[in-house]
Amino acid sequence: MELLKGPDPQRRDLAYRLLNGFVEVEGGAVQRSGGNDQIEFLVEKIYQHRVRLANRVNLDFEDHDLEEMIATYEKLNRLCAGLMYNQGWYDASRGL
């Protein structure tokens, strides 16, 4: 029986960066399962909500608390993406 080492954190990080467009790949060799339109729509929606909130409560668009709230959501999303990657790795290693 082969001992599995577990998912490679560097591959997990690379997958996250590639799928989020943080890394350019020559020839566009990144497989995305669609969703780019949905991602762009949601990012724009977040931006519009942020603008309206800042205007409504008379906050600077780059208010520290707004910035921290968005940064915290980004960290949460990255954590969830990593957990999903790990689960996929374990499922694949068990033939699921």
Q: Can you describe this structure in just a few lines?
A:
By secondary structure, this protein is mostly helical.
Overview of the structural elements:
- The protein has 96 residues and is mainly α.
- It is 65% helix and 0% strand.
- The protein has three helices and no strands.
- It has helices at 9-19, 36-56, 64-93.
- The longest helix is centred in the last third of the chain and has 30 residues, at 64-93.
- It is elongated and about 55 Å long.
- The chain starts with 8 loop residues before the first helix and ends with a helix.
- The model has no long low-confidence stretch (mean pLDDT 82).
Topology:
Layout: H1 9-19, H2 36-56, H3 64-93
Radius of gyration: 18 Å
Sketch the topology as an H/E string, one letter per element.
HHH
Structural class by SSE content:
mainly alpha
Oligomeric composition of the shown chains: single chain
Distance between the termini: 17 Å
Reported for the largest beta sheet, the result is: none
How much is the average pLDDT? 82
Please state the overall shape, judged from the principal axes of the Cα atoms: elongated
Ranges with pLDDT <50 over ≥5 residues? none
> What proportion strand?
under 5%
The count of β-strands is 0
Percentage of residues in helical conformation = 55-70%
How many DSSP helices? Answer: 3
Q: What labels describe this entry?
A:
about 100 residues; mainly alpha; 3 helices; about 0% strand; elongated
